[in-house]
Amino acid sequence: MDENSSMDDEVISSLFEQGVCLSFSPFSFDQYLHISFKHSHACKRMCRNAFYIYKDYICFKLKSEKYQGIITYFCNLKQVHEKNILGKLGQGYKYAIGMLNEGRIGIAAQMLGLAQGCFDHAVPYTRQRVQFGKRIFDFQGMQHQIANVATQLEAARLLTYNAARLKEAGRPFIKEACMAKYYAAEVATVTTSKCIEWMGGVGFTKDYPIEKFYRDCKIGTIYEGTSNIQLSTIAKFLDQEYDS
What we know:
- Keywords: Flavoprotein, Oxidoreductase.
- This is Short/branched chain specific acyl-CoA dehydrogenase, mitochondrial.
- Residues 90-237 form the Acyl-CoA dehydrogenase/oxidase C-terminal domain.
- With 244 residues, the chain is of the alpha+beta class.
- The protein is built from six helices and eight strands.
- A four-stranded antiparallel beta sheet has the order 1-2-3-6, sandwiched between helices.
- A hairpin with a 2-residue loop joins strand 7 and strand 8.
- Mean pLDDT is 78; it is low at 1-28.
């Protein structure tokens, strides 16, 4: 916010209301980004603003929820000041979307790593487990499934690397990031499901990490934009490309 500007605390508190906190590993960070959604006379429209909130503020409290990586947070509006506003008024949505575009590459990598880890645990099991006198890996039907999943993992990896390459080169990357995130999340879902099938009943037990991979992969199709949002964004860019 401009150092020369001046807004009273009542306006600041009003702008701060009804928002979301954007942060991964919430208990590990010292500061958080809060995006508010509020119709304000200061903005003369629906105002989306970004605020920096520091964890050591007396007004800021974190509460852990049952779900992995999710928190509830509370903040006393009287202690949110103008200096906490990030950037310009009304630009919070722009900042948040910019983070999401980059973040989708990270989520693609996360889902890829999860799927690869699951695959790396399951395949050795199929090479050791013996049924009907031979390894279950040696059955042609099993080999085809494993080869299919391995191919999808490699395709997801290349999509993710390409999106990261474009981002690092300063080139347009939003469509490619959406493709990588969408495909990696879908591949993670397929991979973890197949790995449980390959391992049979023990795949559901906590003796192996497969069941955890299976649970954890679902969030990849939801956060940083659902899979349907990724498809809509990809289609929008394709429409623009073929219109030019």
